[in-house]
Amino acid sequence: MKRQHGVILALDETDPEKVRSVASAVAPYVDAIKINWPLILSAGPAAITDLSALRPVICDFKLADIPNTNRLITEQAIRRGASGIIVHGFPGTDSVRAVVEAAKGAEVFVVTEMSHPGGQEFTAPVADRIAHMAVDAKASGVIAPATRPGRIKEIRGIVGSLLILSPGVGAQGGSAADAIRAGADYVIVGRSIYGAPHPAEAAKDVSDVAQSAMKK
Amino acid sequence: MKRQHGVILALDETDPEKVRSVASAVAPYVDAIKINWPLILSAGPAAITDLSALRPVICDFKLADIPNTNRLITEQAIRRGASGIIVHGFPGTDSVRAVVEAAKGAEVFVVTEMSHPGGQEFTAPVADRIAHMAVDAKASGVIAPATRPGRIKEIRGIVGSLLILSPGVGAQGGSAADAIRAGADYVIVGRSIYGAPHPAEAAKDVSDVAQSAMKK
């Protein structure tokens, strides 16, 4: 991903018609479109291919399986047109390495910690170890919560020049400007773009905020 | 799932033709068919519906997302015909509870620990806590590795009357008889059934072993 707008659309809609219209309207203002399993289960895997004609698609599949299954999923996502894939670090280094190898140059992002309350139970205590693992496994970057800019800063200290993608901006309470100032490269924004009366304007607004935070 | 054969087919093929032929041949000898994301990405989500016409389908989706996304995935899997779904415990209790609630009576199985080498890094140290969580969250059962019958026994001590499903039998080195004697209710068998020259015979053989181990 070239750094251009600093915004990734989390397209968490499942109605294929709505997905198409939001993606087309928003495409000029975002760097990538992040999709998740609910869309695959509603629209089928061809959604990856369709959306990748508009913008690079990141499959937020939160892969968490044994190395061979992680590999098979990654291969198929890439074959369908995905430019990036999101994987959990929790199942271990070999599972992450399998994704990096299978991605053949597509981008791989490792979840460090999760922003929901349950994320404090098991993922937060090992988040720093997982950030180190992402570096060792030669991932492209990590996912760190925009709702906790302090954590983004600490994780930036671990991952060096790796990309940091930060979800939780907007409806979930995180600020795009704060996340970027803390060290995030891209903010991931969902509902406050696709749920807005004018998604394109909402995307442009977040993009402007991200751009201006980057300049400071 | 009624306890009848004690064998679940892990249908890890991705060629739709092969999937159909193996599933039809093996259906009379297994209690359920377990499928994973690679099949969804190759054959589309209709595979859930098609296979559920033959046997109950367990979606081994290893869900590991925030509660709302876990819920959306579960709802769609059930709507497509799934009888059960597999979820990770490490994203926290709220993520597991969201699946149990969305499943509306369909069976929910929580992964305790994973049997591959990387599973020792983060999952094994918290496996017992996750087994307790499965009980608290009112899951139907847990996944515990057939390759480590000692662990099945310990996890049985935690989960009481919950179901234990044990993968790793056959090609991965686990023994169906050992796993069932240690306390597993069902063994999950993949390659040594679907990769056999006569999958139906191979399934019948494992089923006989499981049955006879149960009687002891």
Describe the overall structure:
Two copies of one chain form a homodimer. With 216 residues, chain A is an alpha/beta fold. Chain A has a single domain (7-214), classed as Aldolase class I (TIM Barrel, Alpha-Beta Barrel). Helix content of chain A is 45%, strand content 18%. Chain A is built from ten helices and eight strands. Chain A has helices spanning 16-26, 37-43, 46-52, 67-79, 93-103, 127-136, 149-159, 176-182, 191-194, 199-215; strands at 7-10, 32-35, 57-63, 84-88, 107-111, 141-143, 163-169, 186-189. Chain A has an eight-stranded parallel β-barrel with strand order 1-2-3-4-5-6-7-8, surrounded by eight helices. The longest helix of chain A is centred in the last third of the chain and has 17 residues, at 199-215. Chain A is globular, with a radius of gyration of 16 Å. The two termini of chain A are 21 Å apart. The A-B interface holds A 12, 14, 36-38, 40-42, 44-45, 61-62, 64-67, 69, 72-73, 76-77, 80, 88-96, 114-123, 126, 129-130 and B 12, 14, 36-38, 40-42, 44-45, 61-62, 64-67, 69, 72-73, 76-77, 80, 88-96, 114-123, 126, 129-130.
